[in-house]
């Protein structure tokens, strides 16, 4: 927790309080340019100090969440020409007019008068991927030789191979692409085979899913759900019930450091793929789910922690020691072979920090 305070303070200092707020006239001028306008609507009080911002406070306080977003937005401004920010405390009327209700809100205004809301993580790389996605047509028409290069061009890509005269699938695929175009990319190739098919390429996890039987009304939505579900998901209030009732044991990784979370996900992804039939891997924001740490036998003040839980039996197995792909795999094997007993509900395991700072008496 203390580390989070330092990291956010340093980020704000390096950014130099980079919010440069646009006036209403500047906002309207940006909409008239020949480059799409990427606009962040924030809620920053000038009396709010930029230092000593906890990540937990950012998530519960709109003003602090906007301040914490500063370094990401500064990076975006270097990549996109027409980028401005509007402070809704200073421009309440404008924000009411544009129906802004949460912060930070990010929208892309097209040169043709269209507007697209951004719904993804508030990170520069994800926002820029969204901007690039919105430059493409809703559905890209593909020749056979272009399919392979196209399906590698985004995190998640859908490609329909349309059989002659299959107008029904064309309409359904059009509707799907229109609904999800801000999140995924869509391509269409014509084929001479009698049956149409749709493939989804999850390039984040290196997975491919195919829907060959499209007779069911919900066939495409089922494909979307299968393909978008990550091998290592972030547990949130919205999805926690789905994961807890999914029937598989859960491997939780706790941290409040986004950089460390990304490192863990990258390293653990191959392991999650191998054990996907039996285990579900999730990451958890320890600042938001502090009580869950204690319920799984982990120290509440640990900088990070890992535990395996069987929701069916309620058994929890807290991990003690360093956390990497090798140690996590051995931990899972030890549990499966009966070499690790469930937590007894008493004292939490020794945190990694405590373990690293302890000394043997000689």
Automatic annotation (TrEMBL):
<dbReference type="GO" id="GO:0034976">
    <property type="term" value="P:response to endoplasmic reticulum stress"/>
</dbReference>
<protein>
    <recommendedName>
        <fullName>Protein disulfide-isomerase</fullName>
        <ecNumber>5.3.4.1</ecNumber>
    </recommendedName>
</protein>
<comment type="similarity">
    <text>Belongs to the protein disulfide isomerase family.</text>
</comment>
<keyword id="KW-0413">Isomerase</keyword>
<dbReference type="GO" id="GO:0003756">
    <property type="term" value="F:protein disulfide isomerase activity"/>
</dbReference>
<dbReference type="InterPro" id="IPR036249">
    <property type="entry name" value="Thioredoxin-like_sf"/>
</dbReference>
<dbReference type="GO" id="GO:0006457">
    <property type="term" value="P:protein folding"/>
</dbReference>
<feature type="domain" description="Thioredoxin">
    <location>
        <begin position="70"/>
        <end position="132"/>
    </location>
</feature>
<dbReference type="Pfam" id="PF00085">
    <property type="entry name" value="Thioredoxin"/>
</dbReference>
<keyword id="KW-0676">Redox-active center</keyword>
<feature type="signal peptide">
    <location>
        <begin position="1"/>
        <end position="18"/>
    </location>
</feature>
<keyword id="KW-0732">Signal</keyword>
<dbReference type="InterPro" id="IPR013766">
    <property type="entry name" value="Thioredoxin_domain"/>
</dbReference>
<dbReference type="GO" id="GO:0005788">
    <property type="term" value="C:endoplasmic reticulum lumen"/>
</dbReference>
<dbReference type="Pfam" id="PF13848">
    <property type="entry name" value="Thioredoxin_6"/>
</dbReference>
<comment type="function">
    <text>Participates in the folding of proteins containing disulfide bonds, may be involved in glycosylation, prolyl hydroxylation and triglyceride transfer.</text>
</comment>
<keyword id="KW-0256">Endoplasmic reticulum</keyword>
């Amino acid at each position: 927790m203390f580390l989070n305070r330092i990291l956010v303070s340093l980020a704000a200092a390096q950014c130099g309080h980079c919010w440069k707020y646009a006036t209403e006239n500047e906002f309207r001028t940006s909409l008239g340019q020949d480059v799409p306008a990427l606009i962040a609507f924030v809620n920053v009080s000038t009396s709010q100090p930029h230092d000593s911002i906890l990540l937990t406070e950012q998530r519960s306080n709109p003003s602090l969440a906007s301040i914490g977003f500063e370094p990401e937005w500064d990076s975006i401004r270097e990549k996109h020409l027409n980028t401005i920010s509007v402070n809704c405390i200073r421009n309440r009327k404008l924000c009411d007019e544009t129906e802004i209700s949460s912060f930070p809100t990010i929208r892309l205004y097209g040169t043709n008068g269209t507007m697209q809301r951004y719904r993804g993580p508030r990170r520069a790389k994800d926002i820029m991927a969204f901007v690039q996605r919105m430059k493409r047509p809703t559905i890209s028409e593909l020749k056979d030789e272009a399919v392979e290069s196209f399906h590698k061009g985004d995190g998640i890509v859908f490609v329909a191979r349309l059989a002659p005269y299959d107008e029904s699938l064309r309409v359904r695929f059009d509707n799907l692409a229109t609904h999800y175009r801000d999140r995924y990319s869509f391509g269409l190739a014509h084929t001479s085979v009698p049956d149409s098919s749709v493939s989804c390429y999850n390039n984040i996890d290196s997975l491919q899913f195919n829907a060959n039987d499209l007779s069911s009304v919900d066939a495409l939505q089922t494909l979307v759900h299968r393909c978008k579900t990550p091998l290592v998901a972030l547990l949130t209030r919205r999805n926690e019930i789905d994961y807890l009732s999914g029937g598989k044991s859960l491997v939780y990784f706790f941290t409040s450091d986004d950089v460390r979370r990304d490192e863990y996900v990258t390293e653990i992804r191959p392991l999650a793929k191998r054990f996907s039939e039996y285990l579900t891997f999730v990451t958890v924001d320890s600042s938001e789910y502090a009580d869950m740490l204690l319920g799984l036998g982990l120290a509440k003040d640990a900088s990070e922690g890992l535990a395996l839980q069987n929701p069916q039996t309620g058994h929890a197995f807290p991990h003690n020691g360093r956390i990497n792909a090798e140690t996590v795999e051995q931990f899972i094997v030890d549990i499966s072979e009966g070499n690790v007993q469930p937590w007894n509900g008493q004292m939490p395991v020794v945190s990694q920090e405590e373990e690293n700072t302890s000394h043997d008496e000689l």
